[in-house]
């Protein structure tokens, strides 16, 4: 492989794996939303207009 191909390979791997690791760490620290904004409550059986 040429040096430019190796450089782009390393860059692509860093972006992909870095994003995966970063998102995993973020989700581990904040697994779900603790509070939702007011409103948006749906009543069971209520027809939703489109």
TrEMBL record:
InterPro entries listed in its UniProt record: MaAIMP_sms
Alphabetical keyword list: Membrane, Transmembrane, Transmembrane helix
Record carries keyword Transmembrane: yes
Transmembrane annotation, as ranges: 6-28
Domain of life where this protein originates: Bacteria
NCBIfam families, sorted: MetS_like_NSS (NF033493)
Name of the featured protein: Putative methionine/alanine importer small subunit
Natural source organism: Leucobacter komagatae
